[in-house]
Amino acid sequence: MEGKVISLKGKELRKVELSDAVFGLPINEDVIWYAVNNELANARLGTASTKDRGEVHGTNRKPFAQKGGGRSRHGDLKSNIYVGGGISFGPKPRDFSYSLPRKEKQLSLKTILSLKVQDDLVSIIEDFSVESGKTKDLLAVLASVVDLKNPIRTVLILKDDDPMVKRAARNIPWLSYLTYNRLRAHDLFYARKVIMMEGASAKLNEFYAGEKKES
Fold first, then answer.
1. String of b and e for 19-58 (b: at least 16 CB within 10 Å)?
2. What pLDDT score was predicted for residue 102?
3. Rounded to 5 degrees, what are φ and ψ at 179?
4. Among 43, 66, 167, 214, which residue carries the largest CB count within 10 Å?
5. Per DSSP, which regions of the chain are E strands?
6. pTM > 0.90: yes or no
7. Distance between CA atoms of 215 and 201, rounded to whole angstroms?
8. What number of other Cβ atoms are within 10 A of residue 129's Cβ?
């Protein structure tokens, strides 16, 4: 399939080839679900912790006599039924992270890219850099493909690790930036607009489909 490249002034420049193996796959909802939930699980800190009755600070004496009071027997005031006592089956620090097979992870990213293309949410912009590293200069570039008065959740896919573009983008709350070889399923799936640099589209073809551009 083909995609049109837009200039920094919003005019169509040329067509580029988008690999069907990356941007033209059938939508697999299951693999998207697995990838998004995997990223959410890996981001969990897992630091929630409670104390059981053996860890609560307090006395070990019996609250009242075993017999003769007409009440049920109790061992100490650290029982979970007392205020200030231990917590039964409460959370303990744990690691929620797990890994997905590499092929499954790549399939999910390609499927999400295909979904965004089908929904006409992908724009390809000519390669650019922000030499000043200033947010206002990056916004001036994005104005050709994004309505800055009513911005929506947007992902910018970079062709390389450009530190100045990243510096300019980190102050924009509705914009996420991803390098072509380090995509995130969660950011891509929930984005309502995906902007790719022209160089990033070619590298995505090569990285995920193994198609090298002939010189």
1. beebbebeebeebbebbbebbeeeeeeeeeeeeebeebee
2. 93
3. -80, 150
4. 167
5. 2-6, 12-17, 122-125, 154-158, 175-179, 193-197
6. no
7. 16
8. 16
Separation in Å, CA 93 to CA 46, 47, 79, 98, 174: 5, 5, 22, 16, 33
- The SS3 assignment for 168 reads helix
Q: Is the predicted pLDDT of residue 214 greater than 60, yes or no?
A: no
Give me the pLDDT at residue 8, please.
87
**Distance between CA atoms of 192 and 170, rounded to whole angstroms?**
18
Cβ partners under 8 Å of residue 210, min gap 6: none
Measured distance CA(195)–CA(174) in Å, rounded: 13
Tell me the β-bridge partners of 178. 157
Query: Mean pLDDT across the stretch 135-157?
Result: 92
Cβ–Cβ contacts within 10 Å for residue 205, how many? 22
DSSP 54-94: TTS-S--S-SS-SSSSSS-----TTSTTSTT---TT-----
Q: For residue 135, how many other CB atoms are within 10 A of its CB?
A: 16
**What single-letter amino acid sits at 98?**
Y
CA neighbours closer than 13 Å in the CB half-sphere of residue 203: 15
The strand pair at 2-6 and 12-17 is best described as antiparallel
Write down the CATH number for the domain with range 2-34+101-209.
3.40.1370.10
Tokens describing residue 78:
């650290």
